[in-house]
Amino acid sequence: QVQLVESGGGLVQPGGSLKLSCVLSGSIVEIGRVGWYRQAIGQQRDLVALISDNSPDYSDSVKGRFTISRDNAKKLVYLQMTNLKPEDTAMYYCYADVRSGLRSSWRNYWGQGIQVTVSS
User: Fold this and answer.
1) What is the pLDDT of residues 24-49, one digit of tens each?
2) Residues in the chain with pLDDT < 50?
3) Under a CB-based contact definition with an 8 Å cutoff, are residues 23 and 112 in contact?
4) Contact (CB, 8 A) for 96 and 109
5) Which has the closest alpha carbon to 111: 16, 9, 41?
C-alpha cells in the first residue's frame, strides 16, 4: 500500500505565500507523474500542477505564481505558492502515479488533502 501525506497548509493573507509538501511512503518501486489538485467548496476537483520527470504543467489560474517540484530520492513533492488570492482557497490534494513492484502496473494515489485559506 502507498500513502501520501500533505503538510504546510493554513491561513494566509492575500499576497502571501505558502509551501505545501507531500511525502510518499509504503511499497514504492517507481514514482511517475506527481501533482497537486484542489477542490473548493461546492466545486469539482481541478488540476493545479503536474510534473513528469522535470517537465511541469500548470493550470492557467496559477501560472507564474505557483511552482511544483519533486525530490525523488526523498519521495517528496512540493508546491510553492506565492501571491496568493482569495480564489486560491480550497482543499489541496497531492497525487502520484506509483508502481509497487517491478512487474506491477501503475496505480494512482491521493492524499487526504490539506486546507489552504486565503483571507484578510
Assistant:
1) 999 999 999 999 999 999 999 999 99
2) none
3) no
4) yes
5) 9
